[in-house]
Amino acid sequence: MLKSQRIQKIKEYVNAHQTVSLDKLMEEFQVSKNTIRRDVQYLVRNEELKKVYGGVSTIHSELIPYTERADKNQSKKQKIAELAATFIKNGDVIFLDSGTTTSELIPFIKHLDLTIVTNNITIIVECLAYENLTVFSTGGMLERKTNSFAGFKSLELLKSYNINKAFMAATGISISNGVTNSSPSESSIKTTVVERSSEVFLLVDDSKFDRYALTTYCDLKTIPMIITNEEPNEHYMTYGKEHGVTFLYD
């Protein structure tokens, strides 16, 4: 096995098991302790894993307030949103998930006649200036950290809507843990939307790959189109070919 392949496999193994000792990695990959140490140091240095006593652990993405996330990687988010907007046509009924990338869609679709369903306050406010955008809010309890509504009533309302296209967000994605989110109250909404929508698109920048958060709201293979800002590594591309997932990037 090539070094690059082994390092990727180590990362996937740790992500699947959350915390793994160096001895266990030696046993699993049949290499020396010095080799494992070098591989782990590489992954830690690149902030793909973190060191713990006697081993290594996955990086668990915490719930960061919406306002703190809004300006991070903004140019990447805008590029992703511009690509995603090419799939939206006049007359569509779309769901815009709560996220700082999905909110970047509005400037690219503001000229279209659309029905937008969303649980995100920022998206609702941005749509106010455009009378051609008909907006339905899910309502429910306000979750301030995510600028979104959640709760049982939101779920019941979403189950009655027929959505053409859903544009989803995520805290992190990985082959082993799927599409994940830091807010449990939001995750049930995301799962319902994925199940109810005719077409589903996931909008994530490259910093979200090989990260996972508290809850998984769907498998990676459930979403046929993942839009990002650069080509994912070969493991994701192979996974996509095997499971019918297209990675679109510019």
UniProtKB/TrEMBL annotation:
Domain (HTH deoR-type): give its ranges.
3-58
Q: Which Gene3D superfamilies match?
A: 3.40.50.1360, Winged helix-like DNA-binding domain superfamily/Winged helix DNA-binding domain
GO MF, any single term: DNA-binding transcription factor activity
Alphabetized InterPro entries for the sequence = Carb_Metab_HTH_regulators (IPR050313), DeoR-like_C (IPR014036), DeoR_HTH (IPR001034), NagB/RpiA_transferase-like (IPR037171), Tscrpt_reg_HTH_DeoR_CS (IPR018356), WH-like_DNA-bd_sf (IPR036388), WH_DNA-bd_sf (IPR036390)
Query: Do you know which Pfam families this protein is assigned to?
Result: DeoRC, HTH_DeoR
Which UniProt key words apply to this protein?
A: DNA-binding, Transcription, Transcription regulation
Fetch the PANTHER family from UniProt: HTH-TYPE TRANSCRIPTIONAL REGULATOR IOLR, HTH-TYPE TRANSCRIPTIONAL REGULATOR SRLR-RELATED
Q: Could you identify this protein by its name?
A: DeoR/GlpR family DNA-binding transcription regulator
Q: Which organism is it from?
A: Carnobacterium maltaromaticum (Carnobacterium piscicola)
Q: What is the lineage of its organism?
A: Bacteria, Bacillati, Bacillota, Bacilli, Lactobacillales
